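Cont'd.
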Amino acid sequence: MPDETPIRVNLAPVVDVTMSLLIFFLLTTRMVERESSTRIDLPVARSAQDTDRQDLGNRFVVNIRDARDEGGTGVEYVVDEKIMSLADVLNRLTEEKRHQPNVNCIIRGDRTLPFEYVQQVMVGCGRIGVTKVTFSAVPRGSGGESS
Amino acid sequence: MNFKRDIPPGRSYAPNLAPMVDVVMVILVFFMLGARLAVEEGALPTELPSQIGPGGGASVTIIPTIHIALLETPDGHGCRIFIMDTQLPDGSFATLRAVLKKKQDEGANPDGRVLIEASPNVEYQHVISAMDACVGAGFANIQFSVGGAG
């Protein structure tokens, strides 16, 4: 006569493994304060310093997005998730500089951008009197090393 | 309160783990996706010369220790690297880094100014790679010329 006892899956090892994985991801995932939800393909620089360890002071983040391949108008300046013209960006920066004299202008630009667009922001910073300019980059090893 | 009253004698009592597994799996998937999205972001700080501050785009004469010029290649994606007006033969930033390192070993002042002059059409990645090469070779005082190379 066959055994009537139902077969039950033992979930305890599954829970053990899942909990271990959960704790691993909890510990390793850094809740990065995202500057913007703007998708930017940052350039790669081996010597880029970890932003968490560095005191960047009062930040003003300018995202420069290369929208040429997406049928967009070309290059977009994005501040606080709003697309604006370079003149508006510089007006916002001037306002920021009035409140925070030591403002640090952080430039997050797509790696494929012509340098001209970044240069325009730098020239604007110079005119406004913002001397601290920081370039955001991905601190990876070998990518983007050669031309 | 007697919770065991419905359990037949000889049978063990076990909590139902299935809902717990469901919840934990959802949390796990959230963190796995979160870990992928959180791209590490670093920073390359620089200081603009204060002379070009309020007053608007005044021309400043900078005598750099090392002058690096970046010009785009005809295809528009690559770049030609010049150091002190001499073109690097292979146009690689690894070579630039090696040349800069050599200059420092030969006695160039690490606090001296390195001026990067890039053509407006050079890709931003190349400018950052040049800056990266300078920092990697030990030069910290990097400045940019906004006049355009050529």
